[in-house]
Amino acid sequence: MNGVEGFMYPNEIALQWSVLIVLYPFITGLVAGAFILASLERVFRVEAVKPTYRLALLTALAFLLDAPLPLQLHLGHPERSPEMYFTPHSTSAMAMFGYVYLWYLMAVLVLEIWLDYRKDIVLWSQESKGLLRIVYKIMTLGSSNINEKALAVDERVGWIVTIIGIPSAFLLHGYVGFIFGSIKANPWWSSPLMPVVFIFSAMVSGIAAVMLLYMGVTKLRHHTIDVKCVDAIAMYLFYIFIIDFSLEMLDLIHRIYEADESFRSLNFLVHTQLYIPHIVIQICLGTLTPLILLGITQVVKLGENTRKRMYTTAGCLALIGIFAMRWNVVIGGQLFSKSFLGYTTYKMHLVSKEGLLAAIGLTILPLIFLWVLVKLLPPWPDTNIHKAAAAAD
Amino acid sequence: MNISRRQMLILMPAAAVAWKAVLAGTPEQSPNYKMSDHWWGMLIDIPKCIGCGNCVRACATENDVPDGYFRTWVERYHVSDEDMTNPEVISPDGGKEGFPVAAEDDKKYFFVPKMCNHCTDSPCTQVCPVGATFVSPDGVVLIDQKYCLGCAYCVQACPYGCRYINPQKETAEKCTLCYHRITQGLTTACCEACPTGARQLVDLKDPKDPIHEFLKTHSVQVLKPQMATGAKAFYNGLDGSVR
Amino acid sequence: MSGVTVACDPSHIRPYLEARTFRGKECFRSHWNQSQDLPAFSKRRSGFIMSKFKDAGHLFRFAGLFVLLFVVFLVVRHFVVPKSFGKYGHYRADAIGEIAAHPAKYAGHETCEACHSDVLDKKSKGKHAHVNCEACHGALVKVLPAPPPPTPNVYERMVALVIKPMPQDPPVLRHADDPSSVVPELPDTTVLCARCHTASAAKPKGFPQVVPADHSNGMACKTCHDPHSPAMDAGGAK
User: Fold this and answer.
1) Torsion of the alpha carbons at C149, C153, C158 and C163, rounded to the nearest 10
2) Inter-chain touch A106–C66, beta carbons under 8 Å
3) Position A120 pLDDT exceeds 80
4) Given A9, A87, A183, which is nearest B156 (Cβ)?
5) Could you give the CA distance from residue A53 to residue A72 in angstroms, rounded to a whole number?
6) Which candidate in A156, A168, B38, C61 could, as Cys together with B138 as Cys, close a disulfide (CB 3.0–4.6 Å)?
């Protein structure tokens, strides 16, 4: 009966949460991960990753602005979504997440970017002309105080914001994990490990994304990639990936060992429908391969170009692997019946509000946002970004 | 069936008054209904169910349930005494047109009508981000169609699979225990249509409800008790193999 | 400004007079901190704390923006949240009344019995005593097509692009309210009775069931059984 094997409760046959709901934790994960990378420099004083600091923040913002869009497309009544802010249900993780998102956007990310860029914004507001000048003027909030004391205040407050921002980033993506992890009705999701796994896989994806963006855009700009920077990022990526992998293996081993009533059904699912997405793509291609590649670079002394190629490959595979992890959680969790007696299939439409094209569009859109942000707030430390400074030289 | 004109003259105004109360909007305004006097549930008597599907059809008619979605449905179990963990279960179109004839064999068969369990500690209510689904003061889990976002979180959170998203309204929907009927002294459509009395509405706060006697003299179970949802759909004779 | 003599190069007084550039303000500030050139009232102003807050002025602007947005949020919330929200719990209490106001389609056996007492008399003595009228006869309603909504104006049409209008309950005629509005058709017993009474191993053993082909060979059940009191030996035979 149209893609159903065994028995499913009649209302379970069609999936409720589509590929857009897979995309959403992937995007918020990139946000959290990119921010953690930025905080490495700001709080933990890892000087090597400094070239990517501003880029990481802008990446986080670009993806955070895109994050609500898959949700809006999914909702039956998106025009009612302000209800989540006006009458949030305090027992609902989804409602509380609305506020965490808002907090993270305004009190952490936008504030930190503003404080870091403020001096440049004030300078640009004086140097530029026309519409851009108005935009920068608005961004200064009317204050053009960039003397040393003010900048010292910015530095201090920015440091505090980053300190608050690290647990906020964990909260941002941990909450997404909790949205799934707290559903007792679904044994594939229900687990206290879920928020932790989400956080660490988010860090992997965010760090990998910033690394790839940095390498890719630097190349496009015909500049030299700071290899020490990329080496440092890859090292952090490697260690966080190990933690992520360990957590996922812990979940798997625990499940296999305890073998509760859901195990037989889930085990069958992983060996049939989820074999390629889970075993092949997520574990082998998306986790083990990049771990091995990164591990080799940590242990064996290799040439710069080889290292860069390995990092690029590992980064791409890591991103694919983390996306596959989100897919396996969201889609996988809906493919089996809550009666544990049957399975259904996910029919992804191509052209539809929640179809593949929409998903691809929403993945490309943050890159467009990032392009706009990079043009508006250039993050490159190796170029002169002020005409006055250039003229003075 | 000849109705005398006198009978008509008596009945029409009475019907009109009752109808007006229904249209009045609030249960408090309907004659004699006070929410705090009631605590609703349902008793489902498995040995009595014959799998005719009357309840599924009646519910669909009464509540304009769209095709392919079910506020109640019937499952047929086919269980071996040697392996109770592997039942064969079917529910063709939710059991709406009944079931195919089963051939005699050495396994047991029985029917299990399913519906919203109107849980006291309802997980669907817990996860709703805006308060669109709620437990009413008289124990019925309801959905505010004007407030629901259609996010489907409640559909994911229900362990029993009784919720769906209405494709036309794009909001969540489920069994309302025929709230519009029980608040005016009628029973639910599924109970009305059941020919064997396998489904019976229960008012747990009504001391005169015969169900109290039934509960004292029979073993009743709820579905998935390990979920601790406080389910109020009680099953008499529920087999251990039922999922 | 008056009363302050600034002992410095006049060329950068002009930027200060325009009072728009940072350089001008820096110049003025550096002179503020030189006590010998300033009259007494300016000395009081240039305290340590004041200068600290002066340099954090932009943060107050950011915070101010937050506070403004929060106030706007609270105002909008006051108007938008439905008045009955929260009366009984975290939901719109009016929803209870709205749900209760749906028109009922099945009339309930007591309503049928009010007019059809003769059928009730026969049925209550037979095997179908507890089978309700509508279990076999159905709901006996006619659902009318929903009246066309009034033509939306331009504004309503724009709103409808975003806020989809909810489908309303279609109006319903019931035989129970007005017997002439819905004239019932007698159900076909060949089909109707078979639904319950076709023999199947799945049905409870004690339940009366037959194999229709063997039992009646295609004849309508009511040829021999009165549906209201079907047992042949209890006076139900025709």
Assistant:
1) -30
2) yes
3) yes
4) A183
5) 30
6) B38
Yes or no, beta carbons of A10 and B73 under 8 Å apart: yes
Confidence of residue B141 (pLDDT cuts 50, 70, 90): very high
The predicted-structure confidence for A126-138, as pLDDT tens digits, reads as follows 888 899 999 999 9
pLDDT for res A290: 97
Shortest CA gap B16–chain C (Å): 8
pLDDT tens by residue, B41-75: 999 999 999 999 999 999 999 999 999 999 999 99
Are residues A150 and C55, on separate chains, in Cβ contact within 8 Å?
yes
Name, in order, each residue with C-beta under 8 angstroms of B154's C-beta and a sequence gap of 6 or more.
Answer: B124, B125, B127, B128, B133, B163, B172
For C86, nearest residue in chain A (alpha carbons): A87
Contact yes or no for C225/C238 (Cβ under 8 A):
yes
Half-sphere exposure of C119 (CA within 13 A, CB side): 20
C-alpha distances out from residue A356 to A56, A319, A348, Å: 28, 18, 7
Q: Is C177 left (phi over 0), alpha (psi -120 to 50) or beta?
A: alpha
Q: In C145-195, where do the E strands start and end?
A: 172-174
Task: Tell me if chain A has a CB within 8 Å of the CB of B84.
Answer: no
Which amino acid, residue A309?
R
Taking contacts as CB-CB distances below 8 angstroms, the residues of chain C near B192 are 106, 108-109, 132, 134-135
Min Cα separation B91/chain C (Å): 13
Tally of CB atoms within 10 A around C36: 5
Q: How far is residue C212 from each of residues B33, C198, C209, measured CA to CA in Å?
A: 46, 6, 9
Q: Nearest 5°: CA angle at A231, between A225 and A237?
A: 120
CB contact set of C115 (below 8 Å; sequence gap of 6+): B1, B3, B7, B11, C179
CB A127 within 8 A of CB A386: yes
Name which of A87, A90, A137 to mutate to probe chain C: the one with the most chain C Cβ atoms within 10 A of its Cβ. A87
**Shortest Cα distance, chain B CAs vs residue A80, angstroms:** 6
Q: Rounded to an integer, what is the distance from CA C174 to the centroid of its chain?
A: 27
Please state the three-class secondary structure of A3-43 as a single string. CCEECCCHHHCCCCCCHHHHHHHHHHHHHHHHHHHHHHHHC
Is the CA virtual torsion C35, C38, C39, C41 positive or negative?
A: negative
Chain A residues within an 8 Å CB radius of B79: none
